[in-house]
Request: fold
Amino acid sequence: MSEPTIKSVRVLTVMGNFEWPIVKVELSNGLIGYGECHRGPGIREILRRAEELIKGKEVNIEYLLRLIRKHVPNSEWGVVNNAISGLETALWDVKGKLTGLPIYELLGGKVRDRVPVYADLHAGAGIMETGGKRWVELAGTEVAYNVENYIKRAREAMGMGFKYIKFDVDVPEEMMETEFDRAFGMRIVKFVTSFIGGVRDAVKYDVDIMIDGHWAFSVPTAIAIARELAKYDVFWFEDPVPPENIDAMREVRLKSPVPIATGEKLYRLSQFRELIEKEAADIIHPDVQRLGGLLEMKKIAYLAEEYYVPVAIHNISSPIGTMANVHVASTIGDFVAIEWHAIDLPWWPDMVREGMIIKDGYITPQKKPGLGVELNERVAIEHAKDQGEVKEFLG
Ligand code: MG
Reply:
């Protein structure tokens, strides 16, 4: 009997708190696999080109990835890899269903039964990027920059069992001359870090606190913020400066009294190689739905391990992408936690038939074929960005 082959590749963009492009691969025998891409322009077009290349072929993931990378232009870095990441996960899902094995088994086997998750709490207010608004507009500056609100959200996450929480130190636009400013003095440095001090006082050491800088600072300002954050014993300070200049990141890391985490904007092993080899990060924080897929994440994790650099995973995905991250994370030796961005989105769990996959701050990958969760197509379609895509997605 001949092996089943790839029949189609489709994508549906779901409007969650971020856009979630969900990829669906169907085989000639009717088996279906799902994956998720990090949002970005042109994903649909890239997947169409990939489909032309892999249609009619067997699910040999190593070969298919090389084929796509060789023939789709600009696949070295950038958004082509967002598309490849979602497609690759869908291929792993369907491969798992073909073989009866969970993805973590296909990736070499797990070293942990459950994967820690950390709750991203922003700046004391929720985020809804797909509404076209930033959180400050959404929540009002007064609500967002209010220490009671920070503490309330910290307690909410701790009540759900999270052992790690993350807050932003974004400067309110009202305090900036233009939204592109990066250099700030102590007036602003003290203001944005004061909320973290308030949280630490309230929660003591019952939870670890991470901080996200969103690439918003100059090198000296980032160092000044890091020094303030050291007073509150934060677990990491993420993305203090823009991501393109690894030497600048390294300078911050060398002068920062708190650990520096970065990597969510980087692609492929080739970009992480410079970050890791220059020892510019204490913790790497890759985005698996963007960087090129689960195999690429494994390669990056192996290189990081050579430098004793732990891995955490940036994640703004639906439960589909999140579960893909759980599978690969369960196979990584030195791993911290996967991000969860959707504490404010009540229907996040409904995207899969299994419901809420996070329990007491952990996700446990199930011993089921593939991802081990099934997309709830009804919910995905209900929140689809484009009804034209829905028709095609359903086939
Ligand atoms: Mg971040």
In short: Residues 212, 238-239, 264, 314 surround magnesium ion (CB under 6 Å). Residues 79-99 form the longest helix (21 residues). Confidence is low (pLDDT under 50) at residues 132-140. Residues 112 and 365 are 10 Å apart (CA to CA).
